[in-house]
Amino acid sequence: MKAESKQLCKWIKEAKRIVFFGGAGVSTESDIPDFRSSDGLYQQNKYPYPAEIMLSHDFFMAHTQAFYDYYFHEMIYPHALPNAAHKALAYLEESGKLSAIITQNIDGLHQKAGSKKVLELHGSVHRNRCMHCHAFYTLEEVYAQRGQIPRCRHCSSIIKPEVVLYGEGLDQDVWEAAVREIAQADLLIVGGTSLVVYPAAGLLRYFKGKHLVLINRDETSADHLAQLVIHEPIGKVLGEVAERLKAEHE
């Protein structure tokens, strides 16, 4: 184990309240592409408009069929499984070390790994509602209607995913809960995020604790703020850390 990972293990053992804040890079090791890497969604040119347009509220309202064609092909990975990062975070929560996960991801893999306290800043593909009668639909129910616009079985109105599209605001209750968790943490681990998407990236300014750790494959604009920076795949790092902590606990 590298020195950086050993240091992270030490800080985790010393910490009283740990919060994890993550982005798309947490799920790339589950074969879900991110947005900004060389093979990410923003680099694709097989659609008539860029991802920021096709995943916007205005595009959803004006071109619902085209939105869903893109959404089902590029945003939904029904067979994706939690990777070592998701599992390690679930273990830290179960061990009483991790207070909360704050995620920009919409894939639900943290919950699938067993995490309970997950604050989803951008919503979830697993929650969908009729725009008229507000009936709830699972991802499986909506995905079964792929190839067409998903419609409510009660009133035939359009079903909309409870994900935050471009042009939409974040859920204020979720945002305020995330701010509280970060403000109360003594160890903040940030991973798998480029920290360029606002307002989410602005959460770091609420951290007043002892140690800020950044784990990301590439450099971020906040590297200089952290006491520890690890430029490696987050699943590899957190997986090794969790295994070491388990071994020491046994």
UniProtKB/TrEMBL annotation:
It comes from Massilicoli timonensis. NAD(+) binds at A24, T28, F35, R36, Q104, I106, D107, H122, T193, S194, N216, I234. One of its GO terms (molecular function) is NAD-dependent protein lysine deacetylase activity. Keywords: Acyltransferase, Cytoplasm, Metal-binding, NAD, Transferase, Zinc. Belongs to the sirtuin family. Class U subfamily. The active site is at H122 (proton acceptor). It catalyses: N(6)-acetyl-L-lysyl-[protein] + NAD(+) + H2O = 2''-O-acetyl-ADP-D-ribose + nicotinamide + L-lysyl-[protein]. Zn(2+) binds at C130, C133, C152, C155. Its EC number is 2.3.1.286. This is NAD-dependent protein deacetylase. Its cofactor is Zn(2+). Transmembrane segments: none annotated. It is found in: Cytoplasm. It comes from the Bacteria.
